[in-house]
Fold these 2 entries.
Entry 1:
Amino acid sequence: MLIFAMPVVQERCEVQTKGKGTYEITRQIQETIDKSKINSGTVTIFVQHTSCSLTMMENAAPAARRDVERFFEQLVPENADYEHDDEGSDDMPSHIRMVLTRTNETVPIVDGKLQLGIWQGIFLFEHRRDPHRRKVTLTIIGE
Amino acid sequence: MLIFAMPVVQERCEVQTKGKGTYEITRQIQETIDKSKINSGTVTIFVQHTSCSLTMMENAAPAARRDVERFFEQLVPENADYEHDDEGSDDMPSHIRMVLTRTNETVPIVDGKLQLGIWQGIFLFEHRRDPHRRKVTLTIIGE
Amino acid sequence: MLIFAMPVVQERCEVQTKGKGTYEITRQIQETIDKSKINSGTVTIFVQHTSCSLTMMENAAPAARRDVERFFEQLVPENADYEHDDEGSDDMPSHIRMVLTRTNETVPIVDGKLQLGIWQGIFLFEHRRDPHRRKVTLTIIGE
């Protein structure tokens, strides 16, 4: 008899934010990969929200991240004349910033490691002013 | 001797649009997952077009979706001075709006269900004025 | 006796750019799929950089691509007042343009072929002025 467990590993985790900004989550993802024992494949990161998102970003220069955050403040301002404005002035811009970035990213795993470039990090992009506890699902598929 | 067939289920489906706007396709995707019997893994949704796209979005407030649609009308206007303008004034903005959103989304499946947040829906974003029949491919990988 | 060939194939390749612009990489990806013998599944394309990105785009009309490139030049100008400006005026706009497009795309494989629409191509979007040798990882998962 053969029992074959298909190599899919899923883990739900949470990311605490302090309000608007980018929060690196690369290390948590790598730790989940380490535990999974999967050596070669992909990890799909997914946020279960419509007012925060995911983005890859330069992980060395905090000024570069501040420029990204400022760009989105200007491109999708809080004070535009939104029809949907009953949940606060930062609500509708959050949805649009989410649409312009991503809810899921899929990153290769090679030799048990996230196959990132030296300056690449994976960030949760919080678009609301208040702190939030954000749910993230990791799905690792491979061998 | 055992030959193990990897659990990949693919289905092509079509989405009829009535012109510009966002069309929720979450239920059709869930129905395909139900038929696939895959319990744990991911589904990759892919549109085979360059003038419509995919986005996750708030699925409760239609006003929020109208704000998103209006934002893209303003950010990528029809009346800009495009070089490629021989297929109508809504053609080139369609391509740019597609580039700014997504052609593919990968969503986790947990316990046979799309692992979405309570307000999250998956939408086809039609960028052309005329109705179109859009081709979508679903690829479910898991166990 | 058990014969189990796990269906994950990974390949790293490089794309030489001549500076800013979009470079089609569809054929290279298809060739890697051909070699992998995987018939049904997905390929995840991933660039290991934060100053170039990936996008799907119309592959027939070069004017359409020039319009996309021009749009990003205007939306994310070089001469904005960026805080992070020590690596040249094209550096910070590169990061923002990457954030607005993608670092990874996942495309279905059906009958051994990329399941693209007739006008769809996969492009590396170079955001820096100088030529670069860009690292791309392909992960093919399927059966």
Entry 2:
Amino acid sequence: MTETKMKNMPKPNHSKDIMDRKIEHLKIPLEYDVQHSKNYFEDIKLVHYPIPDVDFEDIDLSIKFFNKTISAPICISAITGGHPVSKELNEILAKAAEEENIIMSVGSQRAGIEDSALMESFQITRKVASTIPIIGNIGLGQVSSPNFELEDFEKCIKMINADVMAIHLNTLHELVQDKGDISYKLFYKNFANLRKHTQIPIIAKEVGTGFNQDLAKILDELGFDGFDVGGTGGTSFAAIEAKRNNFNKQMYTRDPAEVFREWGIPTPVSVFLVRDVSQKLIIATGGLKTGIDIAKSIALGADIGGFAYKFLQSAWEDRKKNSISNTTKEIRTLKNELRSCLWLMNVDKIEKLKGRRDKCVILGELYRWLHQ
Amino acid sequence: MTETKMKNMPKPNHSKDIMDRKIEHLKIPLEYDVQHSKNYFEDIKLVHYPIPDVDFEDIDLSIKFFNKTISAPICISAITGGHPVSKELNEILAKAAEEENIIMSVGSQRAGIEDSALMESFQITRKVASTIPIIGNIGLGQVSSPNFELEDFEKCIKMINADVMAIHLNTLHELVQDKGDISYKLFYKNFANLRKHTQIPIIAKEVGTGFNQDLAKILDELGFDGFDVGGTGGTSFAAIEAKRNNFNKQMYTRDPAEVFREWGIPTPVSVFLVRDVSQKLIIATGGLKTGIDIAKSIALGADIGGFAYKFLQSAWEDRKKNSISNTTKEIRTLKNELRSCLWLMNVDKIEKLKGRRDKCVILGELYRWLHQ
Amino acid sequence: MTETKMKNMPKPNHSKDIMDRKIEHLKIPLEYDVQHSKNYFEDIKLVHYPIPDVDFEDIDLSIKFFNKTISAPICISAITGGHPVSKELNEILAKAAEEENIIMSVGSQRAGIEDSALMESFQITRKVASTIPIIGNIGLGQVSSPNFELEDFEKCIKMINADVMAIHLNTLHELVQDKGDISYKLFYKNFANLRKHTQIPIIAKEVGTGFNQDLAKILDELGFDGFDVGGTGGTSFAAIEAKRNNFNKQMYTRDPAEVFREWGIPTPVSVFLVRDVSQKLIIATGGLKTGIDIAKSIALGADIGGFAYKFLQSAWEDRKKNSISNTTKEIRTLKNELRSCLWLMNVDKIEKLKGRRDKCVILGELYRWLHQ
Amino acid sequence: MTETKMKNMPKPNHSKDIMDRKIEHLKIPLEYDVQHSKNYFEDIKLVHYPIPDVDFEDIDLSIKFFNKTISAPICISAITGGHPVSKELNEILAKAAEEENIIMSVGSQRAGIEDSALMESFQITRKVASTIPIIGNIGLGQVSSPNFELEDFEKCIKMINADVMAIHLNTLHELVQDKGDISYKLFYKNFANLRKHTQIPIIAKEVGTGFNQDLAKILDELGFDGFDVGGTGGTSFAAIEAKRNNFNKQMYTRDPAEVFREWGIPTPVSVFLVRDVSQKLIIATGGLKTGIDIAKSIALGADIGGFAYKFLQSAWEDRKKNSISNTTKEIRTLKNELRSCLWLMNVDKIEKLKGRRDKCVILGELYRWLHQ
């Protein structure tokens, strides 16, 4: 999903390596338990309201997502790209997202820029989903590279006619992978340039370790248009790397991927902290399992709930059956659960739930996280 | 126990369906664990007082319940009605309630209004219990229906010579059942009319998801005479529905009944919240297991403790033996436990315990629920 | 250990009954787990001090106990009396207490007053322990009886040349036993008379359900000279009764002894609450297991730690071997543990530890008990 | 590791005894679980920062340790000395410490002073590690002895050309061992003399029961140059003694070593408390397992993280293979983990993390320890 060190490696092997890794990154979460050990959404209770004033079917889940309107605040988070299998998955996901009118995101587009043969694994999304918002994706490593060129960024946008670009921040993943090219000192300079020359919104996307408040404030001021908080609670990239058995026992006594398995800020905490310093878009990703979790995220201050693992599962099944039905069913399930929450809380529009922390009761360790 | 969509269905099948469902609703809690996973009464400790000034047998458990006096603040909560088996159970329960002079409640009377053949499963209660208070019961769905007629409500009252009518609020149950007729927009208008033309008290009854404070305040002002808070802790109707295997796998990836199994406000929390905004009658139902739990509820602010599951169990046994002894024994057990609590806390009248929160120590998660 | 309803029963059977019960009360705790499920001493941590200024052996554990001085703040709590086996146990316990110069207590002396043949099971204690303080014992039921006579109380004192008399408060035990003679309305009147005519100190002794603050204040003002707080954490008399299988299934669906098994105020909580309203003597009994627990109790405000279960175990073993060595070893173990605590906290006299709550860290549920 | 009672025993046996004990003290932690049951570092979470401004390899872990500079704030804590096996272990540890430029510590040097044949087990460290800081070690018992002579202390310094001397405080260990020579009343007088005549820094070192705040303040004012807090969380010396089966069953009913197994102040608590009253050096030892734990300790206020158990394990393995590779690998692992933490928190110099409690979230029981 994330990679940064192309330039230093011979191209063929490199592509081969990345492609193998991409498949591993898809298969490991499907086959092993690489979820964080603690999911803080369980520490949140929503307050029931026994007589809804609104009819169930009249509840309005639609929101504006920049200049498009989507049917519900649901985002298929960045899962894959840059591999023949990715193409198949992205086609399924994008078709389903188009059918259900929600947001589609693609995995890191670097492979597509580097190797035009891989580009179609991304392009397919727009091909089958002409109207929905699609979020493009490039890594912090690329944007921070001395070789970074504006043109590459524009290439990403054009590849999928992106509505929004996400820059993914994946420091822990890089660290436990193999600490290749992990210098980000040029990021702020390069981003300033990027920001000046890019018309579409750009969001900062964490991938499982969460946003802290200080950086969110800085990025908000630098011109980012939103955050995908990507906190702990769901898939741990460190746990995936621990499973990939790439730990060099000659070098260390313990696998850093194991030691840092649980590192990061829980998703609900991150939503809470970021909302307190920014009025920009917030996508809550990381450990959401149901539509109830979307409602919890929104009550804490998010705009949208993002899901990668659930949709990886559904699309993988769809791929076997050459359909999109599992994925559309998953989207409809999430919508129904979210609508049910709103109905049971007597909220007629999803927008009215945003930031309603009085609708939440915070228990357990989450209480401590939020009160210090 | 709750149903709302009669009009749209052919009558015979409908009655058959409802009757089958009624039996399932009785049998599932007896055969499976469909209790909420967490019972917050365990988080409350009552404060012992080592020298009682009152003699055990002199402790006065009696309270006024509107214009009758009952021997103890115990209510047989709404369990059933509208089925031959219901008739047998209701006869047992009402006889025992009459013998012990406590409150009897019937299940939803809709079936009785629609089909006069089913009426006697309700009428039996008054036939065998001429003096005690009996609480009638109709659903939010009926009261909110465009076809709602005052006459139906009066029919319910007359059917059992009801002392009090309860309108049950069962949104979650309707939702996970099959989302039939779940529009309540006419409720406030219809209720205003009802209130104006009904002489007996009307209470609002939750059925396992609990009252929140905002709605309790509104209903108090609208003229409701009390609340049966029916919070989480006891039987989960969502759990019952999950067991009924009516989940349509074609439609969703997860059974909403499973996803919302634990939804709601815990009973002690609901008592606490409602008492803070209303001085009307409060019946604490949902998860009470012993007379100690009645005492805890009353110390938090309730007037009466309600039990459905315990009495369903006792009446089911009694039915096999053609007796009422299990049920009267259960009532006497609750009274003895409650009296014991009062004696051990040096309280000579149950009325004096009401709202004595200083007699409670609140531990665990309940502390968090009550302090935010 | 506690009994109150002699007068109404034919004497021979009564004595026989009581005697059987006395043996059961001794054997059940030795053979079954009848301890409370939660011991709150585990929630207290004492603060280590790495360099003691005092030599270990120079630490002074002695305290004044009314007009005698004892070697350490340890009390053998009331265990038994009124049975041939009791006599053997009391002889062992008193001899050991005399050898180690700590406090000895006897079980309820009622049997001794009623039946002079049983008196020697109490008298033996003073016979073998001429110098130590011995605490006599009579029940709340006796003192509250309309037949109560000052002479009986004096008889108790003389029987053992008691230094102090304890009036034991055992309401829960009476309640779950058989609710015989449980009227205490005359207590305050009878006690006032008793207080006026008795020269030696009188303390109020709870037996496993703990003192609350309100009553402690009242008893302090009435002229009680101290409290044996006897809170939850150790042996549960309700649990013992549950094991005695005297539950009348004809009467109730649940054994009250099971339902009230955990009723009461934890020992450390009770010490804390009572000390806040009284400067009189406090003995902390109920769930203490080691000398560390004595130190914890004293830091919270107690003067002395009491143990019944530990000494019942040691004396039972000694009885088999016709020795007192297990019991003296247990006393020395407690002393050594207490001295070790003081040394590790750099406290040279036990008196200086009293009420030093700054030497305690309170964790877990105990924190909630103490902060509301 | 600690011993104090040589003078009273015949020399040969004594040396033999001590030597046997030294081997037991090394082997028991390797073979049995003698770790404290609770490690409070798990209750601390560090706050992730998604975009590091510094390059991973540029992060500066070096600190000044008195007048030397070390590559990272890591200390090999006092493990052993005074035995042929100790010599082998100390050689391995010192070589590895020299190679990695971190701090080396030796075990109690008393044996070396008493018996010059044992001196080389200490001398070896400086022989193989000419440049790094080496911390010498003598016990509270020796310094407090009436026979204490300044010359002995100087002998310790010279033996290893010590940069710093630690006086270890091991009261619990002495207590549960056999309560030999445990009088420390001369400590303050002897230390004042020592302080006046010693040029190098002297630190106070706890060995697993932690520093409290009051004593830390006193020692700071007396002229100690720092603290090795040695709190609970790692190896429990009481647990080791419990395993040594030296409990005299004739004397006590319970092994004091079992009863006091968990006695003490947790390491993070001790760091927190000591830093609040002293600006001197703090080494956090006791239960640290990874470089993340070093970072947590430093954020709470420590300067350095110390490890004994990890290095005992690594050196024991190295000894079998006649290498130092396990030990150097362990040091590099700790450095890499610590550097990773800093990078993931966007801290470019370890010094900047010191006392940054805002970078920590405190959960669970640790919260209670720190907030009373």
